[in-house]
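Tokens as discussed.
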């Protein structure tokens, strides 16, 4: 098994207003949260549509890298992956 578990806060997910977490109910009423991309003109409280892919300035290659690094730097490891 190689699965672990980590978490991060809503504040962390909203880094530089590039994305926001949204409740995304799965089958059988399982609770799930998905982080979705925002455009520059959408407020941080907006719930973007599911599966939307943006090619705007907010999601340039550099910004994606900075966003991912921010998440990595701010996660809490709940339990380590096992091998």
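Sequence:
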């Amino acid at each position: 098994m190689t699965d672990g578990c980590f978490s991060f806060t809503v504040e962390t997910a909203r880094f530089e207003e590039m994305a926001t977490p949204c409740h995304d109910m799965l089958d059988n009423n399982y609770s799930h949260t998905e982080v979705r991309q925002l455009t520059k003109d959408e407020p941080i409280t907006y719930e973007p549509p599911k599966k939307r892919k943006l090619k705007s300035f907010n999601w340039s290659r550099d910004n994606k890298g900075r966003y991912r690094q921010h998440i990595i730097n701010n996660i809490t490891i709940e339990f380590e992956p096992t091998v």
